[in-house]
Amino acid sequence: MNRIAMSPAASALLRALIGRAGVPRDRILLSDSQSVDWRSLTLTGERHQLRLRVARPDSRAIVDRMCEGLEDAEFSIPGIIVADIAVAETPKFALDTKHESWNPLWVFPKSRSIAANSILGDSVFTRCDHDSSYRPGNLSFTNGQLAGSYQKEPVVSPSALKVAT
Known about the structure:
By secondary structure, this protein is α+β, with helices and mostly antiparallel strands. It has 2 domains: 8-95; 98-153, no CATH class. It has helices at residues 8-21, 59-67, 122-130, 158-161; strands spanning 28-39, 44-54, 119-121, 141-142, 145-146, 151-153. The strands form 3 sheets. Strands 1-2 form a two-stranded antiparallel sheet. Strands 3-6 form a two-stranded parallel sheet. The radius of gyration is 20 Å and the shape is elongated.
């Protein structure tokens, strides 16, 4: 597992944001972190930009809890002052939007074929486990579960989610 390098202040901010979400930390994946030194006449610190992914189910509600009133939130982080905080990008809900993979050039919708021994992103496994209506016709299922012949590539799995300490 790769760890994203973070300063103690960035790690503390991430923990505080996860706390606002009100879910276990393995539901929120830190996919990118950037920090730069910051100074004013009276303070020295860092500016942080965190990119997070929230796994289903209920990812929209989790993001809403984390972001609602964020600009006015007071953070209690020992030794750290959060001077300003904002949502830099509009949240995207990749696992909340279902779509079929087909190309308009095919004229008629046609799913691409997926071999029985293919490697699938674990987001597919997660969606299948948490959404019984998600059963793409180009995947094989046994008793409602993805066929055991598929291999899993960590994308949003709990093992990949344990990036920040």
